[in-house]
Design brief:
This protein is of the alpha+beta class and 183 residues long. The chain has 7 helices and 5 strands; from the N terminus they run H-E-E-H-E-E-E-H-H-H-H-H. The protein is globular, with a radius of gyration of 17 Å.
Length: 183
């Protein structure tokens, strides 16, 4: 019945899911052009040393040592890039909306003083009808994309990345018109 109670309850729930106080959950990064895009996404997690060996760097500060993380490309390889840490996964377990969790984590970094993200020059997003068409094609091919709803969720991203890899396209999990046409 109070904001304090709601915040404490949410904090206790996240702690129970494995949230680690004082650890990051998202950081903007820069990625080299030649990165193996198939290694990106929440389903791929490596040590910071492994990412750094591939040329991944923190944009405004160094990457923390001793943690594992996943490279997130919310708008593909030409858009902003982020490193998601274990706390990101905890929050994602609570709310499985990729956009929601990424937005909340990004806003937290801004509140902590991080600069605005570098938007890059991403390929245009597919309009709703084309995204639904893509999801139908992926589902017909045997991929579990979840509900055919035109929303680029984690299951659709994984299917997109798999098909990009199969077709020899940059496997950054960002659905493009080129992928839709190729399917």
């Amino acid at each position: 019945t109070s904001a304090a109670d709601a915040l404490t309850t949410a904090g206790n729930m996240l702690h129970g899911l494995g949230w680690r106080a004082g650890q990051p959950w998202l950081q903007e990064i820069t990625v080299p052009e030649g990165l193996d895009w198939a290694q990106t996404g929440l389903n791929h997690e490596l040590s910071m040393a492994d990412w750094q060996a591939m040329g991944v760097k923190g944009r405004s500060k160094g990457l923390p040592s001793g943690l594992r993380g996943s490279v997130l490309l919310p708008m593909g390889r030409k858009g902003p890039a982020f490193m998601a840490f274990p706390n990101f996964r905890v929050y994602f377990e609570w709310n499985q909306s990729f956009v929601y969790v990424t937005s909340a984590a990004y806003m937290a970094t801004r509140l902590e003083g991080a600069p605005p993200y570098a938007p890059g020059h991403p390929d245009p997003a597919l309009p709703d009808a084309q995204m639904r068409s893509l999801q139908k094609k992926l589902a017909a091919m045997g991929h579990d994309v979840g509900k055919i709803d035109g929303i680029l969720g984690e299951k659709t991203r994984e299917a997109v990345q798999t098909e990009q890899q199969r077709l020899g396209l940059p496997a950054d999990a960002w659905p493009t018109r080129a992928l839709l046409d190729a399917l």
